[in-house]
Amino acid sequence: MVSNKKEKIFHLLLATGSVFLTISLIGYPDEAFDAAVEGLTIWWDVVFPALLPFFIGAEILIGLGVVHFMGVMLEPFMRPVFNVPGAGSFVMAVGLASGFPIGSILTSKLRRNQMLSKTEAERLLCFTNTADPLYMFGAVAVGMFYNAQLGILIAVAHYLSSLSVGLLMRFYKRNSSDITTETKTSEHIIIRAFKAMFKGKRDDQRPFGKLLGDAIRNSVNTLLLIGGFIILFSVIIRILTVIGFIELVTTILSPIFLTLGLRPELIPTLISGFFEISLGSELAAGLSNVPLTQKLMAVSAIIAWSGLSVHAQVASITSDTDINVVPFILARILHGILAAIYTIPVVHHLYDYIQPVQKVISDVDPNLNLLTSWHWGLALFASALCILILVILLSIILSTINSSKRVFFFIRK
């Protein structure tokens, strides 16, 4: 009874909001059109070309059984650290490299393929939807702050807080019996991994030509869905700004921010970032009378929260599974708070080291800022790949030690 009442209230709020949005579009057609074009430009120029190759590659790797291979190889590491199967390492690695919402897409695929339980999928979803290096270094650091090295500060705070969320979420439903089980066998982990890969490819049954076609078609359809959400929330933010809603909220929250030692000018940026991260980050970067640390704290919190636009994308992507998005949303709040907090020591310890480099680059050639951002982005991607390789090696070592222990106890008996 209570659930039905909440559902009716939620539907009523949605209906009211939809009517309000429609009336606002009629009242401010020029503003709505400009905002829609702005959102479309962001999607076409940045999101589509950046994510399409990753989406296609991920689909192909799943079809070829590579994810099954990684699932076996990384089970000895992922299970004790994050309490998810080894297949989650693939989602984590690709999420680090390409950013949201690919983490939710891959998590949903693994859940549909029964490679994750419901609980494990919810844990994995909470910490694998991260921003990509290119966005933090290129779009935010260079495009908005005009300082490539600030991308280091943003990325370090972002990934440290993301891993912290992953470590905390391992305790989510820790006593649940809803977990995938690893088959006990005396075979070496590498042999088992290759067998799992061949079995995954055999179960898929699609020839490579069809696999490639399906990967392209599914990826484009997903990106069209993402583009629609970006345009919609771009329009919503513009309408809220025009009607004075953001200004009203700023007035109400200003005393609280002053009490916390934060500048009230940050409030409009956080409200915009609540809906869409690019718009909120750009507003934060443009604040001239706010200390850099507070601007970076706001940007870190916005990127970690990822915006209602991304939340809506994740909800839509996972809608055909039994994955509950409530833990994901709560984890985004935790991620945002931790990212803002981590920014303070990160700026304190790293800012003095990057400033001299930025000054030399600016004196030589401002265009090198963009080149530097690409270098840092590629370096971060390479670091993620190296970490993945090291984790694989660690998993092999752990598996070998466990196998040796089993053999030892068998001989003693």
Automatic annotation (TrEMBL):
The chain crosses the membrane at residues 9-28, 48-69, 81-106, 134-160, 223-246, 333-354, 374-398. Keywords: Membrane, Transmembrane, Transmembrane helix. The keyword Zinc-finger does not apply. InterPro entries: Gate_dom, Spore_IM_YlbJ. Coiled coil: none annotated. Residues 46-133, 224-317 form the Nucleoside transporter/FeoB GTPase Gate domain. This is Sporulation integral membrane protein YlbJ.
